[in-house]
Amino acid sequence: MSSNKTFKFTLILKNALASIDELEDSLYEVGCDDALIHCRNSSVYLEFDRVSTSLEDAVISAIKDIQRASIIVDIVGVSPENLVTESEIARRLNKSRQIISLWTNGDRRDSFPSPIMRISEKSPLWSWSEVTKWLFDKKIITDIEIVDNALFIANINGALEERDKKTRDNRHRLLEKISFNDNQARHV
Amino acid sequence: MAIRSKHPKKEIEEAIQYAEQQGWKYKSAGKSAHTWGRLLCPLHTRDGHQMSIWSTPKSPFNHAEQIRRLVDKCLHSNEETE
Predict the structure, then answer these.
(1) Do A131 and A141 form a contact (C-beta atoms < 8 A)?
(2) Residue A54 has what pLDDT?
(3) Contact between chains at B54 and A33 (C-beta distance less than 8 A)
(4) Which residues have CB under 8 Å from B7's CB, separation 6+?
(5) Between A34 and which of A53, A99, B3, B58 could a Cys-Cys bridge form, CB atoms 3.0 to 4.6 Å apart?
(6) b/e per residue, A150-185, with b = 16+ CB within 10 A?
(7) What is the distance of C-alpha B73 from the center of its chain?
(8) pLDDT computed for residue B76 by the predictor
(9) Which positions 11-70 of B are in contact with A (Cβ < 8 Å)?
(10) How many CB pairs under 8 A join A and B?
(11) From residue A4, how far is each of A1, A53, A55, A151 by CA, in Å?
């Protein structure tokens, strides 16, 4: 039995063609009255506090609500995002930056995931879903839901990107190019 | 500067006052039927933030918290007036 909880997340909208008045009213009318609308430049953000049984259900229902609205907008992403800096990891875990550094340097505990972007720069980026998996394996966190939610956020953002036909076609063409064919043995 | 009415929900009115203490300014809701009003962050350029406040949100308590969170997150909020 799962019970209802409040989930906090942000949906990022682009190309909101309507005026802000229309945007507000149409989002209100489809049930987004649990979100705070704010904008900066041409991006619109919806800060949700949505009651649901899981983060996945909460985010999916919010996306579906927006798609029912009378205005047309592109939903481009869901945050808190998957790419995190060392200080963001510290903030999310409510731990000191020093502890995170000990983990990432391998000075305390082993096999912390490698950063996946900006590897040679001052503040590299880690995948939050890989980090939470490691934390769970090391029993630093015990709530599997955190691991599942991190993976969901990474995947829903991928799915939102793939909805764009051009992006999808391009990716699939590249995927085709780099795929192993039958004659080529894969060394595992 | 526009003169605003009080927000009917006490907790939201308090959150609006909190935003105003950090330098946010009221802007009218225009033609929107469900919006009480809007707040503009202290940076009055395209790069600044604007938020829309509902007259009757699903949960007044959560809406007030959302307002405070955004004010705290905005880099342009005046910290010295606290």
Answers:
(1) no
(2) 95
(3) yes
(4) B13, B16, B36, B37, B53, B55
(5) B58
(6) bbbbbebbeebeeeeeeeeeeeeeeeeeeeeeeeee
(7) 13
(8) 76
(9) 29-35, 38, 46-54, 56-59, 62-63, 65-67, 69-70
(10) 65
(11) 10, 5, 10, 21
Residues in contact with B43: Cβ distance below 8 Å, sequence separation at least 6, in sequence order: B49, B76
- DSSP class per residue in A119-159: TTSSS-BEEHHHHHHHHHHTTS---HHHHHHHHHHHHHHHH
Residue type, B18: Y
B65 neighbourhood in chain A, CB within 8 Å: 49
| ipTM of this complex prediction, to 2 decimal places | 0.89
Token code pair at residue B34: 């469900």
Residue keyed to tokens 């929107």: B32
Which of B33, B52, B59 is the closest to A34 by Cβ?
B59
pTM strictly above 0.90: no
Return the residue matching tokens 């909101």.
Answer: A16
By CA distance, what is B66's nearest residue in A? A36
CA angle A66, A67, A69 (to 5 degrees): 65
**Beta carbons of A41 and B62 less than 8 Å apart:** no
Give residue-wise pLDDT tens across range A101-110: 999 988 888 8
Phi, psi angle pair for B3, to nearest 5°: -95, 130
